[in-house]
Amino acid sequence: MERVDEQGGSPDLVQVLVVDDQAPFRDAARAVLARVQGFELAAEATSGEEAVELVERLRPEVVLMDINMGVMDGLEATRIITMNFPETFVILVSTYTEADMPPAARTCGAAAYVNKDELSPRVIRRLWEAGGDPAWRGSLA
Question: What are phi and psi of 20, to 5 degrees?
Answer without folding.
Answer: -165, 140
